[in-house]
Structure formats: C-alpha cells, structure tokens
Design goal:
The chain is 51% helix and 14% strand. It has 14 helices and 10 strands. 24% of the residues are buried. The N terminus is likely disordered.
Length: 402
C-alpha cells in the first residue's frame, strides 16, 4: 500500500489535511465536497480491471468469490473511507503481510471495514496502536501459512481434472464455491476453541506477572541426520517425510495436553504447563518414531523455567537451554535440565535416585503397603559447558517399568 493516489495528472500536490496529495489532473485544489463526490463516483463506477493491470479473468472471478466483493478502492480511498490516516492504514496492511500496490484500485468494502475495526479498537481505548498492529501481524502471519498450506496441499489434490480436456482452473472455481463457507465456519470454530483454551490457561496464572512471563516446560524434538537426508532423497519424498513427522508430532503433543508452538521442518517446538506432560510427550515421540521404519532417529531436549510468550511463540533462556540440550542428546534419547528433573522428583513422577526408589519399596513392603510407583527414571549425565549458558547438568530421561 502506498501513500499516493494520483489520477491521470502528472504532478502530486500535498493535501490540506495532511493526507497524500492527489494528481494535478484529478482533484487537486478541489473542495472537500468535490473530493467526496469524485471518490463516490470512483467507487460506484470502478471496474475491477480499471487499475490498468492485465489480470486473468478467472483469477479475478476467484478473488471476487473469495473476498465476496469487487475491487473498488485505491489505498488512499480505502483509508479515507475508513476514517484513518494513510500512514496508519499502510502500517496495518503491511503488518497483515500484504504488499504495497501502488495506485491500483484493488481494495474492497471488506478491506475498508477491517481498517475501520482496527482503528475503532484503538479509538475506544481497547487496544493501543502498537497492540493493534501486533494483532494485525500475528493474524496475518498465522493465516498466511494456513492459506498457503490449503492451496499447496489441499486444493492441489482436489482439483485434478475429472475429464480429459478440462483444465485445473476450470475445476477450481466450483470447488472453492462449495468449500469456502464450510472452511470459513470451521476456521472460526477452531479459533474460538483455541482462544477459550488459551484464555483458561492465562486466568489460572498465579499472578499478573505470570500471565506474561510463565513457568513452562519447553521441548525441542529434532530429526537426526536430516541434512544428509536432504542430499539423498527426492524432493517429494523429503516433503512427505517432513509432513509425516510434523503431523505425528502435532497429534502426540495435542493428545497428551501439550501445545505445539511451531514446526521447523526437521524440528518441532512444544510447551506444557506440567513438566510430567512434557516428559511423557518426549518419550512418546521417541517411541513412536522408533517404531516407524521410514523415520530417522529422533532426539529431544526439555528445560523448565520462566518463559516469555509473544505472538504464540516462546523466548528466553529456558527455550535456549532446551535447544542446546537437544543438540547434545544421544540418538533416540531425551535430555532434561536439572530444574525439570527436580520438578519430576517433587511431584513423585520420578525418584531422586534408584537407591531412593529401592529404599521406598523396602519400607513399603515392611509396612505391608504398596510400594510407590514412578512413571520416569532420571540418570545424571556429565556436567558440561554449553555455549552462552555456562555449565549445565543434563539428565537422561527414560520410562520406568515399575
């Protein structure tokens, strides 16, 4: 989005209200009433193609179907209609991930409404301007990835021409027409569910400070030797492997009460409020991948501590430590930091040592009671320096049979 809206004229003149100037051959020097009449005429009579771009008619039809409206506004006209400055409108649009479009008349009533809503939240004092831009950015980044995935993986597989002589584009329009309302409702449903879950976690925080900087268990799971695989495998095979890894990881993380933060091809990052949940997910990942002959070995590192959350991502020393532990973990093994080991011991999920477990079992037997059961076993490893984090003491996490 740019700040110029010149018409057929060649010169640009500053507008009296501080907005970008109009072309000398259009409405420069006209009264505000005249400007409003000209822009209203532009909106009503504008043809989707009048920006001068040579667009594919089917692409324009698809765009209009998806957006639910025709192109009517230039960026300046959209900002003016929404009642926001051109500068703020540009920042909102760039935050949402949309490219500058120059003087093209390519925006719709929905674009105007979106600008009006964001600006209204700021004017009402519900959001600061910086927060509104952050909302635009986080929403844009998340939905951009979703849209790319749906086009690349979903529609591509469904638009194979059913009959000889038909093109993929001829199949796409009716398919989108049928799927769009269903996918839209499903998207809103999932978003509300996720919002409810996230809100529940926040309101259960011990204090206001913990709502932002929280104590979480953070885990990285990394495919071993992935770089070598990229040299040996065909692109399609590699894509299938990555998709299988991400899908399996996402399912396991969700099923056991964790949250998938992001995927990085050969690596996934997840978090859990409960250290025991994070440990269980790590071992399940190792066990599941080990039983799949198509998958390379996996290694996992987990750390527990204060984490800063921003825009759905996590940051801080705890995250860095989890990453470092993953890089030094043996194949098909889980390394945890001392803080997580202490939490597992404190909650009774793991004994402090095998000697302690044996003593507890002997004492229980003497009293005629059931011996304590533990989910995990912890074995201290050699202390070692870790770049940027000093000396750390990793613990090898395994599943305990009894």
């Amino acid at each position: 989005m740019t700040v110029d809206d010149s018409g057929s004229g060649t010169g640009a003149h500053p507008a009296s209200d501080g907005e970008p100037g109009r072309g000398a051959g259009s409405v420069a020097g006209a009264s505000a009433a005249r400007i409003d009449r000209v822009e209203a005429h532009d909106r009503v009579d504008a043809h989707p193609d009048d920006s001068g771009d040579d667009h594919d008619p089917l692409a324009l039809r698809l765009e209009q179907l998806i957006l639910g409206a025709e192109r009517r506004y230039t960026p300046f006209q959209a900002a003016r209609s929404a009642g926001v400055s051109m500068d703020l409108a540009s920042r909102f649009w760039r935050a949402m991930g949309f490219a500058d479009i120059g003087q093209a008349r390519a925006l719709t009533e929905a674009d105007v409404l979106a600008l009006r809503r964001l600006a209204g939240l700021v004017e009402a004092g519900l959001l600061s301007e910086a927060m509104a831009i952050q909302v635009a950015r986080s929403t844009g980044q998340t939905t951009a990835r979703l849209a790319e995935w749906q086009i690349d993986s979903f529609l591509e597989g469904l638009t194979e021409p059913p009959e000889p002589g038909m093109t993929r584009t001829e199949v796409t329009y009716p398919l989108v027409e049928l799927l769009l309302p269903e996918l839209e409702e499903f998207l809103v449903y999932v978003w509300r569910r996720q919002l409810a879950a996230a809100t529940g976690r926040v309101v259960q925080a011990a204090d206001d400070e913990e709502m932002v900087d929280r104590r979480l268990a953070v885990g990285f799971a990394d495919l071993v030797g992935f770089t070598r695989l990229t040299r040996r495998m065909e692109e399609e095979e590699l894509g299938e492997l990555v998709e299988a890894f991400e899908t399996t990881s996402a399912d396991l993380v969700a099923a056991h009460g964790g949250r998938l933060i992001k995927t990085l091809g050969d690596e996934v990052l997840y978090a859990a409020d409960d250290p025991g949940v994070a440990a269980e997910i790590a071992l399940r990942l190792i066990e599941t991948m080990a039983n799949d002959e198509t998958m390379p070995e996996l290694r996992v590192g987990i750390a527990f501590g204060t984490v800063t959350t921003r825009m759905g991502d996590v940051f801080g020393a705890t995250v860095n430590l989890a990453s470092r532990l993953t890089s030094i973990a043996p194949k098909d093994a889980v390394l945890v930091d001392s803080a997580l080991a202490e939490e597992l011991t404190r909650t009774g999920d793991a004994p402090a040592s095998e000697a302690e477990a044996a003593e507890a079992a002997a004492a229980a037997e003497k009293e005629g009671e059931e011996p304590p059961t533990y989910r995990f076993a912890l074995q201290p490893m050699w202390q070692r320096p870790v770049r940027g984090l000093g000396v750390v003491e990793p613990w090898l996490l395994t599943r305990r049979d009894s």
